[in-house]
């Protein structure tokens, strides 16, 4: 059986006479997390071996042995029977090549890496993995957005207070609130689709930094692995981690939107508001207070946004001072990428679960409406009579002051009281104090009238497609 000693398995040990310090060995290894890339590493190796066969570096028989051996290694990973060797398997590349040598012999396995560097190998693995994960994230986000659009259409008749500065401002439709975030998430979807294009570019065949000396067919490998195009500079290709950083930035955008969405729902689900009720499946209780139903799903969405932001900020700091081409600092790109993608993917699915099971309380929304929210409508009433808006704003403000001073809701002030504020009020001012009429007046595109909201649903569905 082939030796499995540490030194025998090093891919770089020829000029070294001593071993690594034990702590340095642990500090340096990455197999504990980059083993996730086993499938991508093997696919890249098969494509590279095939191209080396075309270039005359391998015989067809050697290629077939390498391919069969690599497929066996992948099967072991999938079955959970792959046995790594602590201290010998530094990373996923070392582990796979070591096991390949055990299966087909080191003489042939040793030819696999001809002209290839781990610099291009890890960059290829990461891009392949991230491409597939971005496709999953797109599916999650599209599914969530479909729930937003469906509920917005179904619940378009629910009128609620709209808030600025967490104070009641103007009446809006509940659907209008949902769609305000729906379009933010749709923008995130658009960004995601753009990022995927830049992720799906091949660095394979670029060597350590200077390129491949054996005339390897990079286009052939790129096509086999499903890349859209090549990275055209070998130095940039092996060093580039912008695709990771851009993904972390994208995820931070999305998590910022999810966090704010969750914050609104935390408020709306509180006893003080009661606009919505969370399903038990997305709530927890208190170990002390039996009456509590806590919105832990929403609070975790809000909390995990900070984790996502940390990935992005931390990795940006890692990159900022690096000299050209590959540096070992770039090993720090893998864990943030893995954790970020999982955090974001889980968060989108939790958000969809919350929204799809959310129990809306339209009567509570209606009860929270307040006549003061129609103060702008009072000003608009006078505008329609030809009064300049700046003047009508002050007049409406005096109506608000009168309401507060007398303790009379604005909609219950008498015609005489209104006339006392300004002679231009007529008896039809009473018609202004109608919440449904108020939302229907906001009929310009993007407004909260029913027709506008339903148009927004249509536009959102178009963005999802």
Major sheet summary line:
2 strands, antiparallel
CATH architecture of the largest domain: Up-down Bundle
Low-pLDDT runs: 1-5
Task: Let me know the average pLDDT.
Answer: 95
Q: Termini distance?
A: 55 Å
Counting DSSP H or I runs of 4 or more residues, the number of helices is 20
**Morphology:** elongated
What amount of the residues lies in strands?
A: under 5%
CATH superfamily of the largest domain: Fumarase/aspartase (Central domain)
SSE series: HHHHHHHHEEHEHEHHEHHEHHHHHH
Please give a structural write-up.
With 465 residues, the chain is mostly helical. It folds into three domains: 24-114, Fumarase/aspartase (N-terminal domain) (Fumarase C, Chain B, domain 1); 119-367, Fumarase C, Chain A, domain 2, CATH 1.20.200.10; 371-433, Fumarase/aspartase (C-terminal domain) (Ribonucleotide Reductase Protein R1, domain 1). Helix content is 61%, strand content 5%. The chain has a two-stranded antiparallel ribbon. Strands 3-4 form a two-stranded parallel sheet. β1 and β2 (167-173) form a beta hairpin. α5 (60-79) packs across α6 (92-104) and α9 runs antiparallel to α12.
